[in-house]
């Protein structure tokens, strides 16, 4: 399975300006969050990137893409019907191929040489099925994420066969349906904001949209739950971390994570120590 | 007697097996053998060997149930088998119980206690005393082990675990659903309402729904459980779900809890308030809030703020209001009202926080199971505990609930055979057709008999008997299972007559084979009268829950059901009136209307003008709000008042509210005026001494008397008596002359019996205030007998044997005199062939509010039984509340806030014999029997005491004034004993012991049974027979006062019940004073002697929980052997 296309969603009402924020990347160069995400995708080996935006946002996004604007295809999400709908809007762009899905308000910092997206794409290509990146997450964060349950693929330490998907479960449900052997207690595999999806997902989203009243939103996780019953669907614990720049102090934390894993690490650390020392006085 | 075999009577083949084989064998036919199959006929040495093997086994076994069964075997060996064997072999070993071991028991260090007692047994040899201590330690260790396991299982049920890990508000993962935060146009929030039926157990499962049982024997844990709506016949228009829970968002950062039925409401602002269960009447709501994860158990003691937690859950500055409501269904209905209310509350909280998929409508099966798991957790948190079927109302219709063998995925796997959580099969219309459901409802009359009883001890007995597999009980359990099949089959066919026959057979057979105490005299009377009134149209009796007397069912031919509802109410009321002074009734009996609820628990969302709480909520809260400045009220409250005001004028459900509120705001004159008057009357007519009362109050306030002052001086020398200080009854029996002397006196009619029957049996009914003497406590000679009847049966037998029927006197008090006299007339004085007298009490005290100092002394300085962790927390909180109560109502003030009779107290049994002098009873006896020389005085609960000729002969020959009977001490014999005090043998009350441990050095316990030489005692009072016969009241009164002044005045704390609402009860500690009979032994001019008698003779029956042991250890058989029934 070869992945040549990536889809980035950036149309949510409270998300529209986030990819346009500027961060200093690991090389010490100021870039927009969008540019950082695009580079993450390109590093994974994709050629074309579809960006799902709200009507009218196209120009700002093209400008924020740095030198990559020419590789972008913009797709408009004309009505706000949820994340599932945003993904479905990219169906013509993906055109029946498997694709890498990223969200516009997340920044990833890998702890190994290969970026997170690349790790994911490699696994998906090898296993030839849909794979979602996941991260073991404490149960107190469950209200923010979709989560999966399943069991470890024999002989593979970071790969899981998904059997259940729940959107923002309560810990009560999670404890009953999402326990994954081998994780620390109170931790669940929550979505990382990065997936490689097969064309089946588009079909499932289409069906769901058809059965949902107009104006009502749909979740991607509902389709992924269905996917796990239809075909082989894996979850992959990538070596790295994700930063939600839309949460409180999210942008700051993402910036610190980038800086502390890059060229200017010493300088930033020095600045932090100085801040702490002043506070201690 | 209803039972078949007693211990030692094992009828099967005794094989040379070890007890460990019975526990570990893979073959059920061996595992299900009773203890007696190995112990029958074993010598003391063999029994001791068995205990050593078992103790070693239980220490090394890592299987929970093998350990527990070994512990119950050990308990039974030490409680029943060894004492009987030791008594048979005539072992006179005194066997003191080491105080250190007792302290271990109090602190729940059961393993250490066992070790201490075993060490003593090895050092001093086996004895009745040490066995009693070991029996208790093993018994409690067994229950502790089981409780620990249930607790672990409750916590490890999936869906419950996370709540124990969550310790910080920031980690609260639950969010209140957005629908509940959407305001209406007027600014008010919607209300989520959960309505839940209660459950009936149609099969009575022989208590197989006890957790321990289901977890060990899942195949045998089965019940047929029906969800029902309820109404009180004649009061409610139609049955409806009896419990409901209501929830809404608040604009204040508080957790507002309201129990409409208990009339309590509170705004909780700190986490510690949430975990303080007994502070108010909101314990059940708090347990629900915690068990549903709203305030997860893991956050207890974290020091964090409730506001932060609520902000996370509902939003900054917001809070939650949760209201519980029971439609006036009285307590003790045996329909699991409180567990289903807990389930209802948990369900509403789970829906509100997204833990159930549907906000409204019924629950899905996995959600119902979660509610069950959470309800189990809630019950554990609240320190209560029901059976596993009790949340049955959450499910719809008729269902079979069964135990479930633990599988690999269950947390119980490898620990217990069964799961904590049972399985539910809801019967479809194909399985039980509509017509059958209708037929059941057309025939079954469900009632509440009005009795209030504590079923806790019964559940312990059931567990113990199950684990012992004693033959009669084990076969009873198997029978009960076959009855279940019969009931289900009859129900499927709609054959209600067959169903009635099956439930009756269940009650008569298996239930009472396992627990004879499941039936009461009241129940037997009701069945007999229903049968008499309806003949063959009375199809059967159906026992509900732990004990009969409260919730019960009577099954009639359908065409007579309506008539039966009315008639049963009359029968119950009449029977209650006859027995209310003998048995603890909490209320008048009621008949229920009911309907099978086919939905289970259901929720709906009330919005806009319908968003109103239950009507009584407003009766509770509106008066307080109206007293506040309207502008100071939060907006939400103002809006609600307006809405309620409008609804009260138009909504038919709120009809009558205006009047209710008017009554609350402008209360009528005090309605208890008549009661207050009658308290004054009662005091006046019962010899209340006002000046003495004021003196006691003043002494109590000033600290001159009190619990600490009851004690003898710390430097008093308290030693055990020496061998010459007591005579052994077993030795006296070898002296024929003594027997002849006694027999001659009996034949000459020189002896009378005085039974102390003035008491309300505080321990017997936990302060319910009934006449213990009239309590039909056990079936003897084929029917329930009262204490009075049992004592008369012994005197009747003596009369028949010796040809002279002894006069028998029962002393009474203000409390018991009227009821006893009336009762004796009703039963035709049990046709007692001799003189039967009541000696009416002439002294009474008025109870006082206790001093906080004394409460502290009792609860903090006296050695206390520590409870299981959660129960201890509840108790600590309750005690703090009671100390606040004493302080706020005024220490040492008169206790008047109860029924007048509950405000008086008897002033101690010292006065009982003097009363015979003052009220003319002794004069009458002497006139009737001029040759009367001796009285035998004993307590109402000393059932083995009789006119034994040998003991009488010994008393007569000694020439003593008083001869006291004492028994060797067992662990439970607390409250003083026979001691050498500064070198002189005398009885010392427990209250007077300078140090707690002194008592544990005393070999003998006072049975209170006393042989009295009438003339010698009169002389000690400075009186003669002539004075008594002459009736010189002033002289007699002065003589009594002189002696009384020389005796100590003890202050004691008693627990009294206050009943309110619908069968609700509160227990308050009150202070009273008393002077005690045994202190006469301290007076030098009174020649007192002491005889050690066998336990069967001296044992006192103080607590109903003792009854089962009393039946099993041969005491009941002994009583039968010395009695002749009418």
How are the elements arranged and paired?
The complex is a heterodimer of chains A (281) and B (1126).
Chain A: E1 5-9, E2 22-24, E3 30-32, H1 33-43, E4 48-53, H2 58-64, E5 72-76, H3 82-89, H4 91-94, E6 99-103, E7 106-110, H5 116-127, E8 130-138, E9 146-152, E10 159-167, H6 171-177, E11 187-197, H7 199-211, H8 220-230, E12 233-237, E13 240-244, H9 250-260, H10 265-280
Parallel strand pairs in A: 1-4, 1-6, 4-5, 8-12
Antiparallel strand pairs in A: 2-3, 6-11, 7-13, 8-11, 9-10, 9-11, 10-12
Helix pairs in contact in A: 3-7, 3-8, 7-8
Chain B: H1 19-24, H2 28-31, H3 36-39, H4 44-60, H5 64-88, H6 99-106, H7 110-124, H8 128-156, H9 161-165, E1 191-196, E2 198-201, H10 211-216, E3 222-232, E4 243-250, E5 255-259, E6 264-268, H11 271-274, H12 283-291, H13 306-314, E7 319-326, H14 337-352, E8 361-362, H15 365-381, E9 398-402, E10 423-426, H16 434-443, E11 444-448, H17 456-468, H18 471-493, H19 496-514, H20 521-534, E12 538-543, E13 551-556, H21 561-579, E14 590-596, E15 602-606, H22 615-627, H23 635-650, H24 657-665, H25 673-685, H26 690-701, E16 718-719, E17 727-728, H27 729-732, H28 736-747, E18 751-756, E19 776-780, E20 783-786, H29 787-802, E21 808-811, H30 817-826, E22 836-839, E23 845-846, H31 852-861, H32 869-889, H33 900-903, E24 904-905, H34 912-918, H35 921-928, E25 934-939, H36 949-958, E26 962-968, E27 976-981, E28 984-989, E29 1004-1013, H37 1014-1020, H38 1025-1030, H39 1033-1045, E30 1050-1060, E31 1064-1074, E32 1088-1092, H40 1095-1098, H41 1107-1112, H42 1115-1121
Parallel strand pairs in B: 5-7, 17-32, 18-21, 18-25, 21-22, 26-32
Antiparallel strand pairs in B: 1-4, 1-15, 2-3, 3-9, 3-14, 4-7, 5-6, 8-15, 9-10, 11-13, 11-14, 12-13, 16-27, 19-20, 23-24, 25-29, 26-29, 27-28, 30-31
């Amino acid at each position: 399975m070869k992945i040549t296309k990536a889809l980035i969603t950036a149309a949510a009402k409270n998300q529209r300006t986030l990819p346009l924020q500027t961060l200093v990347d690991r090389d010490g160069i100021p870039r927009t969050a969008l540019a950082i995400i695009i580079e993450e995708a390109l590093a994974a080996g994709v050629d074309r990137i579809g960006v799902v935006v709200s009507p009218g946002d196209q120009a700002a996004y093209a400008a924020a893409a740095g030198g990559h604007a020419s590789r972008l295809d913009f797709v408009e999400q004309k009505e706000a019907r949820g994340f599932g709908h945003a993904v479905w809007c990219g169906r013509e762009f993906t055109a029946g191929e498997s694709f890498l899905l990223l969200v516009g308000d997340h920044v990833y910092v890998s702890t190994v040489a290969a970026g997170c997206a690349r790790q994911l794409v490699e696994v998906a290509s090898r296993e030839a099925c849909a794979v979602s990146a996941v991260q073991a997450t404490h149960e107190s964060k469950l209200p923010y994420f979709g989560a999966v349950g399943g069991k470890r693929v024999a002989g593979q330490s970071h790969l899981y066969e998904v059997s259940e998907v729940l959107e923002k479960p309560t810990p009560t449900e999670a404890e009953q349906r999402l326990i994954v052997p081998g994780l620390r207690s109170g931790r669940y595999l929550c979505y990382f904001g990065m997936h490689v999806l097969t064309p089946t997902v588009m079909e499932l989203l289409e069906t769901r949209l058809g059965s949902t009243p107009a104006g009502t939103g749909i979740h991607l996780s509902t389709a992924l739950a269905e996917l796990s019953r239809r075909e082989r669907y894996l979850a992959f614990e990538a070596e790295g971390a994700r930063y939600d720049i839309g949460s409180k102090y999210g942008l700051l934390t993402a910036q610190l994570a980038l800086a502390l894993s890059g060229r200017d690490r010493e300088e930033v650390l020095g600045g932090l120590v100085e801040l702490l020392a002043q506070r201690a006085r | 007697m209803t039972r078949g075999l007693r211990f030692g009577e094992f009828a099967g083949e005794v094989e040379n097996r070890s007890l460990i084989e019975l526990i570990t064998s893979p073959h059920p036919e061996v595992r299900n053998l009773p203890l007696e199959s190995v112990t029958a006929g074993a010598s003391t040495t063999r029994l001791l060997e068995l205990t050593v093997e078992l103790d070693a086994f239980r220490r090394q076994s890592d299987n929970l149930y093998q350990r527990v069964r070994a512990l119950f075997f050990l308990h039974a060996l030490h409680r029943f088998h060894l004492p009987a064997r030791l008594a048979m072999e005539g072992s006179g070993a005194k066997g003191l119980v080491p105080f250190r071991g007792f302290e271990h028991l109090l602190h729940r260090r059961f393993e250490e206690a066992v070790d201490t007692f075993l060490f003593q047994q090895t050092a001093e040899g086996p004895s009745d005393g040490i066995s009693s201590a070991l029996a208790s330690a093993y018994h409690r260790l067994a229950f502790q082990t089981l409780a620990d396991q249930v607790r672990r299982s409750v916590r490890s049920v999936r869906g419950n675990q996370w709540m124990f890990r969550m310790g910080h508000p920031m980690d609260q993962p639950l969010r209140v659903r957005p629908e509940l935060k959407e305001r209406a146009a007027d600014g008010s929030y919607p209300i989520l309402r959960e309505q839940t039926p209660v459950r009936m157990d149609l099969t009575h499962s022989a208590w197989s729904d006890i957790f321990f049982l289901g977890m060990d024997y899942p195949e045998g844990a089965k019940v047929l459980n029906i969800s029902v709506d309820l109404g009180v016949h004649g009061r409610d228009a139609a049955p409806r779900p009896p419990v409901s829970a209501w929830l809404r968002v608040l604009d204040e950062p508080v957790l507002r809890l309201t129990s409409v039925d208990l009339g309590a409401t509170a705004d909780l602002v700190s986490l510690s308030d949430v975990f303080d269960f007994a502070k108010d009447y909101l314990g059940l709501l708090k347990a629900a809030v915690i068990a549903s994860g709203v305030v997860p158990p893991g956050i207890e003691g974290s020091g964090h703020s409730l506001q932060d937690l609520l902000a996370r859950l509902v939003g900054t500055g917001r809070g939650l209001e949760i209201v519980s409501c029971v439609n006036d269904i009285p307590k003790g209905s045996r329909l699991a009202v409180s567990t289903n209310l807990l389930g209802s509350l948990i369900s509403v909280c789970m829906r509100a926080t997204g833990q159930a998929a549907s906000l409204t409508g019924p629950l899905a099966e996995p959600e119902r199971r979660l509610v069950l798991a959470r309800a189990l957790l809630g019950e554990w948190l609240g320190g209560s505990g029901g059976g596993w079927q009790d949340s049955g109302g959450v499910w719809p219709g008729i269902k079979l609930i069964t135990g479930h063998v633990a599988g690999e995925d269950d947390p119980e796997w490898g620990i217990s055979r069964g799961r904590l959580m049972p399985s539910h099969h809801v019967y479809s219309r194909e399985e039980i057709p509509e017509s059958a459901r209708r037929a059941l409802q057309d025939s079954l009359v469900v009632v509440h008999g009005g009795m209030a009883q504590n079923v806790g001890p019964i559940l312990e007995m059931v567990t113990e008997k199950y684990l012992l597999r004693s033959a009669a009980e084990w076969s009873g359990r198997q029978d009960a299972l076959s009855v279940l099949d019969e009931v289900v089959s009859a129900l499927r066919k709609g054959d209600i007559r067959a169903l009635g026959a099956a439930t009756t057979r269940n009650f008569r057979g298996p239930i009472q084979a396992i627990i004879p105490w499941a039936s009461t005299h009241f129940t037997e009377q009701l069945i007999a009268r229903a049968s008499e009134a309806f003949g063959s149209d009375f199809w059967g009796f159906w026992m509900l829950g732990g004990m009969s007397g409260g919730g019960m069912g009577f099954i009639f031919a359908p065409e007579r059901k309506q008539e039966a509802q009315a008639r049963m109410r009359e029968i119950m009321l009449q029977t209650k009136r006859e027995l209310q002074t003998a048995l603890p009734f909490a209320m008048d009996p009621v008949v229920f209307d009911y309907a099978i609820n086919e939905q289970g628990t259901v929720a709906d969302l009330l919005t806009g003008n319908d968003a109103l709480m239950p009507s009584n909520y407003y009766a509770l809260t509106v008066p307080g709000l109206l007293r506040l400045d309207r502008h100071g009220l939060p907006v939400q409250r103002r809006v609600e008042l307006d809405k309620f005001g409008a609804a009260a004028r138009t909504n038919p459900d709120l009809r009558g509210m205006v009047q209710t509120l008017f009554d609350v705001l402008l209360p009528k004159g005090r309605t208890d005026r008549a009661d207050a008057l009658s308290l004054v009357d009662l005091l006046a007519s019962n010899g209340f001494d006002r000046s003495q009362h004021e003196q006691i109050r003043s002494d109590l306030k000033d600290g001159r008397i009190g619990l600490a002052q009851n004690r003898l001086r710390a430097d008093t020398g308290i030693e055990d008596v020496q061998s010459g200080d007591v005579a052994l009854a077993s030795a006296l029996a070898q002296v024929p002359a003594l027997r002849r002397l006694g027999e001659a006196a009996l034949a000459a009619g020189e002896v009378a019996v005085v039974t102390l029957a003035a008491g309300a049996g505080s321990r017997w009914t936990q302060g319910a205030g009934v006449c213990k003497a009239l309590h039909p406590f056990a079936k003897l000679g084929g029917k329930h007998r009262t204490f009075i009847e049992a004592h008369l049966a012994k005197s009747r037998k003596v009369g028949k044997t010796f040809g002279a029927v002894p006069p028998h006197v029962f002393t009474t008090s203000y409390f018991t005199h009227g009821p006893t006299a009336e009762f004796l007339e009703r039963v035709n004085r049990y046709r007692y062939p001799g003189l039967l007298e009541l000696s009416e009490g002439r002294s009474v005290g008025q109870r006082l509010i206790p001093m906080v100092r004394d409460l502290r002394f009792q609860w903090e300085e006296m050695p206390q039984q520590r409870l299981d962790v959660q129960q201890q927390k509840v108790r600590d909180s309750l005690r703090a509340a009671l100390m606040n109560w004493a302080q706020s109502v005024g220490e040492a003030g008169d206790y008047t806030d109860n029924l007048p009779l509950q405000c008086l107290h008897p002033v101690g049994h010292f006065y009982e014999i003097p009363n015979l002098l003052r009220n003319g009873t002794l004069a009458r006896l002497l006139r009737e029997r001029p040759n009367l020389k001796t009285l035998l005085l004993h307590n109402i609960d000393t059932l083995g005491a009789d006119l034994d000729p040998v003991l009488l002969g010994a008393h007569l020959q000694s020439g003593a004034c008083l001869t006291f009977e004492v028994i060797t001490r067992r662990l439970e014999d607390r409250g003083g004993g026979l001691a050498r005090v500064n070198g002189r043998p005398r009885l010392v009350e427990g209250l007077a012991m300078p140090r707690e441990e002194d008592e544990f050095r005393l070999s003998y316990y006072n049975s209170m049974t006393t042989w009295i030489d009438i003339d010698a005692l009169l002389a000690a009072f400075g009186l003669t027979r002539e004075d008594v016969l002459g009736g010189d009241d002033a002289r007699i009164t002065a003589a009594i006062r002189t002696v009384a002044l020389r005796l100590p005045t003890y202050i004691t704390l008693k627990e009294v019940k206050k009943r309110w609402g619908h069968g609700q009860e509160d227990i308050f500690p009150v202070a009273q004073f008393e002077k005690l009979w045994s202190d006469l032994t301290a007076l030098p001019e009174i020649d007192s002697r002491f005889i050690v008698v066998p336990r069967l003779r001296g044992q006192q029956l103080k607590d109903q929980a003792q009854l089962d042991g009393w039946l099993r250890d041969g005491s009941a058989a002994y009583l039968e052997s010395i009695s002749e029934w009418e």
